[in-house]
Amino acid sequence: MTAALFEQIRAMASDLFGVPVEQITAASSPQTLENWDSIQHLNLVLAVEEKFGVQLSPEEIEEMKSVGETAKLVESKLQATPR
Amino acid sequence: MSQEHNPSNLRAEADRLIAEGSADAASRRLAELWRREPGSATASFINSRIDKVRDEISLAKFKLAILRSFTVEPIVPLLRAEAFAYGIDLEVHIGDFNTYVQEIVDAGSSLYRFAPNAVILAARTEDVAPDLTREFADLSPDTARQAADRVAHGYEQWMNSFRQHSQAALIVHSLEHPVHPSFGVLDSQSESGQSGLLRQINREMRSVAKNHRGIYILDYDALVARYGSKHWHDERKWLTARLPIAADHLLHMAREWMRFLVPLTGRTAKCLVVDLDNTLWGGIIGEDGMSGIKIGAEYPGAAFQALQRALLDLSRRGILLAVCSKNNLDDAMEAIEKHPGMILRAKNFAAVRINWTDKSQNLREIAAELNIGIDSLAFLDDNPFEREQVRAALPEVTVIDLPQNPLEYASVVRDCPVFERLRLSAEDQQRTAMYAEQRQRADAEQTFQSKEDFFRFLEQEVELDPVSDLNLARVAQLTQKTNQFNLTTRRYSEAQIAEMAKQPAWNIFSIRVRDRFGDHGIVGVAIVHDVDGQCEVDTFLLSCRVIGRTIETALLAHIAKSAADRGCKRLTGWFLPTKKNAPARDFYSQHGFQIAERNGEGSLWSLDLTQQETPFPEWVKLITTQGAHH
Fold first, then answer.
1. Is the CB of A49 less than 8 angstroms away from the CB of B247?
2. CATH number, position B328
3. How does residue B556 score in pLDDT terms, banded at 50, 70 and 90?
4. Does residue B18 fall inside a structural domain?
5. Domain count, chain B
6. How far apart are the first and last CA of chain A?
């Protein structure tokens, strides 16, 4: 995973879950972040789709269990659909 | 992008300023962040900061309820961030899925308990009219028509019921045409096909809305078409999250709602000040000359003609246009008056500043000349340096960011919500001409020795009328827009004015002014109510165009006389000071009122009607149409 992409997802997570960016790691998840509820999960999906111009399937949305996994997913989507 | 405009720096700056207690500066950073990087993540960031600054800065508070049949939750943070950028603090209540009918018809529902200023009814066509969408192919022509009548009737009942229970504005999403009609191309061959029936429901919805005050239709089909139906819809999100709109377009939905909320909150612009070189035409007149600048029917001049047409549309909507350009006056005026490609001419501009002074100074002068607040100005300039200078010096001006490509200029202006109007009065449409007359008056005033001579020369006539269907819209508009000569600055919707007019103890008057130069239209309102033999002034306001010509005395004389005729012994009224109404501060004391009470909000003034008469100014001619009371 490229560092730049991870940083972008991290910044998004910081905005959406209301936590300073330094406190967000690849392992940050609904278990570790209080504000990561189902509504904010949908907002994360929408923020990813809007920012990277990708479309996520219900199965892929399920996979986004942490910040690291979200970044990995976005990376694979971007490689699959070169823009 | 320079360092300081980098979005992550803007976030850090905003947080630092909040921590320091500089809420105003912080909110400017937040607005800039939103301009640079609008989207779901930024919206979340901004929403969490709004709570920290809302009490420190001046925002218009507004309560919005959204009744819906689909997921709107992700749109709300976008809407609140967008509203914040326009100086609106939006509190949002979301109804449960598909409970909108109960919410509307039940006077005790959570909708009405929330006491909203406005309500959006956002129902998907498939949810309101399932038989006309999914099952259409199964219907006989008769049952299809009955189904359409039933849906249209449903909307009519909801609107009627809503108006019985609430005076809030109501914004109703119209129905969408099917992307793929059940009968394919055959559907378009008749008006009673699927699309035809949905169009019919929309037509009926419009005609019902027109009969109510403050009920508006949002043309959902046109909105979707603007961005392309194929891109707008997201079937997968609909099935998994009941969200029918694709991620990219949630912001467009929020912005469409803003086109209603900005005029409802009065955060509109009254005048658009435009630059000339590379804004109104391509090229630089001082260097390229008349034959070199690009303006005409062919590309690239066509892009600038498209912008000029958009500006002309604004001026027909009552928005004044003004020029502010760094140029030699003669060069620029020659191009404006003589270039064959120009659509706008000097007569279309209410004020002109062509000089080498900095633009914020020119904007201040234009606002003063037109007698409007600086916060009523919008500014259009291709040069990012000029835009930043104006933003820094005059943060209350709406500065419009123009994109690099002139072909996009016209649509940027047309999309800007500060130019939206929900109603047009006759005054709005003639406004530019009125300002031309105003300039003649100002010139005439110079030539008289005394004010009295000037007043006599003006030959002013006033018409004083009780509120009726004819002037109701304008009366409400004046209460919403008048800031300077306004004693109490109470804002009323049309529905509220209509409600007040029904009460026997209340009297509402409008004043219309004409003089030898032209017709000002309806420019003033007085609202009074009688309690225990006293008449209290609830609202007393005049458009600033007519201040200082004794029209205010004429209006006061009228309400004093009518109060005395009704047997009232005293005329009382509050002066509630605001940042802007200093011109009205001495009004009561100058007209013989005594101060009766003073508190933290303002001062109460009183006039003994049995002892004192307020004479009608001798140079003002009163024309009463003697409309019946109410």
1. yes
2. 3.40.50.1000
3. very high
4. no
5. 3
6. 17
Tens digits of per-residue pLDDT, B314-340?
999 999 999 999 999 999 999 999 999
Are residues B252 and B327 located together in one domain of the fold? no
Across the interface, do A16 and B41 touch by the CB < 8 Å criterion? yes
Task: Compare all CA atoms of chain A with the CA of B40 and give the residue at the minimum distance.
Answer: A47
Distance from CA of B39 to the nearest CA of A (A): 7
Contacts of A43 in chain B (CB under 8 A): 40-41, 44, 74, 77
Closest C-alpha among B520, B516, B343, B512 to residue B433 = B520
Is the pLDDT score of A81 beyond 70? no
Domain that holds residue B603: 441-623
What's B241's domain CATH number?
Answer: 3.40.50.1110
CA B36/CA B109 separation, integer angstroms: 40
The Cα B472–Cα B335 span in angstroms is 43
Q: Which residues of chain A make contact with B36, given a CB cutoff of 8 A? A: none
Cβ distance B40 to A16 less than 8 Å, yes or no, reads yes
Contact B256, B224 (CB under 8 A): no
How far apart CA B309 and CA B316 sit, in angstroms, is 11
- Is the same domain home to B380 and B527? no
For residue B103, what pLDDT band results from cuts at 50, 70 and 90? Answer: very high
Are A46 and B44 inside 8 Å of each other by CB?
no
- Do B358 and B499 fall into the same domain? no
Question: pLDDT confidence of B628, banded at 50, 70, 90?
Answer: very low
Which amino acid is residue B520, in one-letter code? H
Contacts of B507 by beta carbon, 8 Å cutoff, 6+ apart: B466, B527, B528, B529, B530, B559, B562, B629
pLDDT at B420 over 70: yes
Average of pLDDT values for B386-391?
Answer: 95
Report yes or no on B564 lying in a domain.
yes
Q: Rounded to a whole number, what is the distance in Å from the CA of B184 to chain A's nearest CA?
A: 29
Chain B residues within 8 A (CB-CB) of chain A?
8, 39-42, 44-45, 48, 71, 73-74, 77, 234, 236, 239-241, 243, 246-248, 250-251
B230 found inside a domain: yes
- State whether B102 and B198 are in the same domain: yes
Please give the average per-residue pLDDT across B436-450, as a whole number.
80
Question: What's the average model confidence in pLDDT over B497-520?
Answer: 92
CB-count burial class (<10 Å; 0-12, 13-18, 19+) for B281 = buried
Residues of A in contact with B44 (CB under 8 A): 15-16, 18, 40, 43
Q: What is the pLDDT of residue B629?
A: 42
- B544 and B567 housed in the same domain: yes
Residue A14 domain boundaries: 3-80
Q: What is the CATH number of the domain that holds A65?
A: 1.10.1200.10
pLDDT (0 to 100) of residue B625: 64
Domain end (from B367, B386, B419) = B419
Which of A43, A55, A58 lies nearest to residue B40, judging by beta carbons? Answer: A43
Per-residue pLDDT of B533-552, as tens digits, reads 999 999 999 998 888 889 99
The verdict on ipTM greater than 0.90 is yes
Question: What's the structural domain count of chain A?
Answer: 1
φ/ψ of B257, rounded to 5, equals -60, -40
Q: How far is A59 from chain B (nearest CA, A)?
A: 10
Say what the pLDDT of residue B423 is: 86
Whether residue B188 is found in the same domain as residue B252: yes
Angle between helices B250-265 and A38-52 (to 10 degrees): 100
Radius of gyration of chain B, Cα coordinates, nearest whole angstrom: 27
Query: In this structure, are B146 and B249 located in the same domain?
Result: yes
Q: What is the CA radius of gyration of chain A?
A: 12
Q: Is pLDDT above 50 for B189?
A: yes
Tell me what pLDDT residue B623 has.
84
The per-residue pLDDT for B516 is 86
Q: Are B109 and B249 part of one and the same domain?
A: yes
Q: B40 and A58: CB-CB below 8 Å? A: no
Q: Measured between CA atoms, how close is A4 to chain B, in angstroms?
A: 14
Picking from B8, B39, B48, the nearest residue to A50 by CB comes out as B39
pTM given for the model: 0.80
Interface contact flag, B41 A51, Cβ < 8 Å = yes
| Domain assignment of residue B399, yes or no | yes
Domain end, chosen from B265, B299, B326, is at B265
